Amino acid sequence: MFPLLTLFTVLPLMASVDAWLSDNHTCALTKPIYSCENTTAIVDTCCTPTEGLVLVTQYWDTYTGLESEGSVLPKESWTIHGLWPDRCDGSYGQYCDLSRQYDPVPSPNTTTGKPDGTPVPVWEGGDVITPLLEKYGKWDLLAFMQKFWKSQNSPDWTFWQHEFSKHATCFTTYDVGFDGAPDCYGLLYENSTEASIIDFLESVVKADIQYPTYQWLSEQGITPSNQTGYEFQKIQDALTAASGAEPYLGCTGPTRQVLTEVWYYTHSYGRPQDGFLKPLDQTTKSNCNATQPIWYYERTQGSEY
Ligand SMILES: *[C@@H]1O[C@H](CO)[C@@H](O)[C@H](O)[C@H]1NC(C)=O
Ligand SMILES: *[C@@H]1O[C@H](CO)[C@@H](O)[C@H](O)[C@H]1NC(C)=O
Ligand SMILES: *[C@@H]1O[C@H](CO)[C@@H](O)[C@H](O)[C@H]1NC(C)=O
Ligand SMILES: *[C@@H]1O[C@H](CO)[C@@H](O)[C@H](O)[C@H]1NC(C)=O
Ligand SMILES: *[C@@H]1O[C@H](CO)[C@@H](O)[C@H](O)[C@H]1NC(C)=O
Ligand SMILES: *[C@@H]1O[C@H](CO)[C@@H](O)[C@H](O)[C@H]1NC(C)=O
Asked: pTM surpassing 0.85?
């Protein structure tokens, strides 16, 4: 009995140690390089993303649609959309690791966005992110996300899980061993998927706070108004000067006059996790109306706090 018991207790331990011995993705030992600037110099895809045109994206919404449930927008701040891994040429992939599919409403519903792509299975397991952050005591991160990473017309966790499954899974630096990819995490956290989720959420926040769009605009006298529209060029110049490169601005409405989005383009020095982002001009021209006033609307009464 005794030797058998010993064997059983020792085996799982040995397996773990083996995994640890062969992992070797200590990016602290790798000299960082800028993503997309010399892809042949990437020695470890856990340490530099191969899809290395990194976009920091934000929304200007005027309501959440769930005010009655207490969901409001943060005063004097744009909200987080996400952190996206475009390929160096500006094209992009999505839902790159279906073993980490937590999006309850996959959009698009195939990996290519076309009928011939692999269908993205609907996640029916509910909120994974909130309990995960609670499990690891990431209360401050959760509180920040609840305030600044807002969904419209659906609970915030659905949007967080959409962003994670659609985009984070295409960044090589959050790989967990799917389909021949390396596992960047070793024994950190209970499992590598959990590690990659938390790591990504922290990266999103770390990038977002470097782009205080509301302040940058207001310093140039551009504040939300339902009375006065602004010249597109004035908005773009303000954000270009403050961020260091020309972002993409997104406008909605039939004549593209309602400002709702900004995408800042960057190259990441090493991992996006580390938050050293070099500003770059957009690869997608803004769609806003360049000849008519742009509306930067005030939030709906009762929609912000
Ligand atoms: C991991 O690093 C150790 C120590 O440098 C080395 O002996 C081992 O061969 C490496 N393993 C792999 C898979 O690169
Ligand atoms: C890119 O990196 C490779 C491998 O490190 C190196 O040999 C090459 O000289 C680099 N190219 C440029 C343009 O820096
Ligand atoms: C994706 O959505 C389209 C449009 O609603 C639908 O026709 C198609 O059957 C869906 N494909 C999958 C794989 O769910
Ligand atoms: C790892 O964690 C994720 C997220 O909590 C969970 O969905 C998955 O089942 C876990 N995997 C294993 C092998 O425990
Ligand atoms: C800009 O607005 C004008 C006048 O409303 C309209 O004719 C034009 O099509 C708009 N341009 C775009 C790109 O929507
Ligand atoms: C400003 O206009 C927008 C767009 O019509 C509207 O949603 C919002 O409620 C308005 N805000 C105020 C304070 O009137």
From this structure: yes
